[in-house]
Write a structure and sequence with these properties.
Elements lengths: L1 E5 L10 H12 L8 E3 L30 E4 L18 H10 L5 E3 L13 H10 L2 E2 L10 H9 L12 E5 L2 H11 L2 E5 L13 E8 L5 E8 L4
Parallel strand pairs: 2-7, 3-4, 3-6, 4-5, 6-7
Antiparallel strand pairs: 1-8, 8-9
The structure holds magnesium ion.
Length: 230
């Protein structure tokens, strides 16, 4: 039996309304939080991203590779330490490779901190753009609910070549926001299990739901756990 711990981006000080609303969607369809590909840390990201989603079960001659034309990149605990707006030093080489493979508007940072209503005047988003050279989406709805804003961004930039959400990969550390959004929009999700530094979760907050895969292959939203950071 396999189990996956799901981190929920909910805190006492600031509620992710989109995340809270969409938990009901997850209760009826737990597979929404399952990633298409899992890596430990950002520096293990396969480039080009299409490599991550090849279905090897049928053999290469029967495989139709996904056509990934653009990448949505989370920030906190993905390529950056939370609350910082710079690339974690050990990841600069991989970040440069990603920018080279997906230049200009083909790479888009979508954070639930920088570029949202939690970021007054989007000052953090501007700093992040200066530090990374990558555009940061300004979005009214937090992940996982901002897929329409993401697709509007790509479709309004023909140079990305994106005409369908299946041409987009979403990379992030949160199953309930990044990966769930990828599944909701019909994209591909890459889950980064471990951030650049240990994440102790949210002090006193609801931190985990366990998704269990049974022998029959079905998925069940199994339990919630409370984790208290030291
Ligand atoms: Mg994150």
């Amino acid at each position: 039996m396999q189990s996956t711990t799901l981190n929920i981006s909910t805190s006492k000080s600031q509620m992710n309304i989109s995340g809270t609303f969409n938990i009901f969607r997850l209760l009826t369809n737990p597979s929404l939080c399952l990633p298409h590909h899992t890596i430990s840390t950002f520096d293990q990201l396969p480039i080009p991203l299409s490599q991550a989603f090849i279905n090897r079960k049928n053999g290469p001659e029967k495989t139709k590779n996904p056509d990934i034309r653009a990448v949505v990149l989370d920030k906190d605990n993905c390529f950056s330490i939370p609350k910082q707006n710079e690339i974690y030093p050990a990841y600069t080489s991989k970040f440069a490779d990603l920018k080279k493979a997906y230049p200009g508007s083909k790479l888009l940072i979508v954070s639930n901190s920088s570029g949202t209503s939690s970021d007054p005047n989007h000052a953090e988003a501007e700093i992040l753009e200066r530090n990374t050279g990558v555009q940061v989406l300004r979005h009214a709805t937090k992940k996982p609910g901002c897929h329409a804003e993401i697709m509007e961004f790509f479709r309004s930039r023909p140079e990305t070549g994106v005409t369908d959400a299946s041409q987009v990969a979403v990379v992030g550390d949160r199953l309930f926001t990044d990966v769930m959004m990828a599944n909701m929009m019909g994209s591909y999700g890459v889950w980064i299990k471990d951030g650049p530094v240990p994440d102790h979760g949210l002090v006193g907050g609801l931190n985990g739901i366990v998704v269990v895969k049974g022998r029959e292959g079905g998925l069940k939203l199994f339990a919630a756990e409370r984790v208290y950071a030291p």
